Amino acid sequence: MAWADCVEGNQFFYVTADQAQAWDDAGADWRAIAFENLLRLTMRQPASGVKEDERGRPFVKVMLHQDALGPSRLLVPHLFEDVLGPDYQVAIPERTCAIAFRRDLTPAQAADITGMIHGCYQHGTEPMRPERFDAHAFWNNDVR
Fold it and tell me: What is the pTM of this model?
């Protein structure tokens, strides 16, 4: 995980060890502040897109936000449990894109998700990984 300072225009400046130490020395709980900022953004718009099955039940949530912090939303514990189930999985195929999806998929839904993951990974400007992970792998309750 990397920490970044975001300014207007979606510009990112990675937090250096010296900057983090300076904030720590000043008594700033900058990690908690950053997580609260992320929570505020996430609660306002958890996902930028959704696909539903024939019964109107979501099977995938896409995080490709204008703020470029889509994958960071995966740090929020239990974010999509209510709609995707407690065992949902995630992928981060591109630095600005994350995908969360139900584990119980039809073959057509699974193919759709595989296509999304590989499309973002192969054609994204900053590819990450095409693997799938359990959502809870990204949750850190100590961040707050």
Answer: 0.87
Using CA atoms, how far apart are residues 87 and 78, in angstroms rounded to an integer?
Answer: 10
Q: How far is CA 76 from CA 33, 46, 126, 135, 140, in A?
A: 14, 10, 23, 10, 8
**Residues with Cβ < 8 Å from 60, sequence gap 6 or more?**
50, 51, 99, 100, 101, 102, 109, 112, 113, 116
Measure the CA–CA gap between 45 and 25, rounded to whole angstroms: 34
Task: Calculate the CA 15 to chain-centre distance.
Answer: 19
Backbone angles phi, psi at 119, to 5 degrees: -65, -45
Q: Digits of tens for pLDDT over the chain (144 positions)?
A: 667 777 666 677 788 899 989 999 999 999 898 889 889 989 999 999 999 999 999 999 999 988 878 899 999 999 999 999 999 999 999 988 999 999 999 999 999 999 999 999 999 989 999 999 999 999 976 554
- 107 vs 40: CA distance, rounded Å: 35
- How far apart, in Å, do the first and last CA atoms of the chain sit? 15
89 exposed, middle or buried (CB, 10 Å; 0-12, 13-18, 19+)?
buried
